[in-house]
């Protein structure tokens, strides 16, 4: 995880966090597998719903939860590492990663 801290104004700071996509995806997969064991859906016995159906139905919300958790943890760690005292709610925006050139 890469962290950069920029000073914009007296109290305003900009923190740029880089989270590895493979870590996010592995956590999403783990949570979807855990959810697949308990989900109930018409036409399937409990716990027997195919993984692709679970991913289609719940994938977006699980991905959102994972991103929210990971960004929150990374922000708290970055703020603590930079010895910043957070005075208000942070504004978080997402930038798409550029694929690495091989």
Plain-language structure description:
- By secondary structure, the chain is α+β, with helices and mostly antiparallel strands.
- It has a domain at 19-81: Alpha-Beta Plaits.
- The protein has helices spanning 21-36, 51-81, and strands at residues 2-7, 13-18.
- Strands 1-2 form a two-stranded antiparallel ribbon.
- A hairpin with a 5-residue loop joins strand 1 (2-7) and strand 2 (13-18).
- The longest helix is centred in the middle third of the chain and has 31 residues, at 51-81.
- The chain starts with a strand and ends in a 21-residue tail after the last helix.
- The model has no long low-confidence stretch (mean pLDDT 85).
């Amino acid at each position: 995880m890469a962290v950069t801290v920029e000073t914009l104004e007296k109290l305003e700071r900009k923190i740029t966090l880089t989270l590895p996509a493979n870590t996010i995806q592995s956590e999403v997969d783990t949570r979807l597998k855990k959810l697949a064991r308990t989900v109930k859906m018409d036409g399937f016995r409990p716990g027997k719903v195919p993984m692709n159906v679970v991913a289609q139905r719940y994938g977006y919300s699980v991905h959102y939860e994972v991103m929210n958790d990971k960004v929150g943890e990374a922000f708290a760690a970055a703020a603590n590492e930079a010895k910043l005292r957070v005075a208000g709610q942070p504004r978080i925006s997402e930038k798409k990663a550029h694929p690495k050139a091989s």
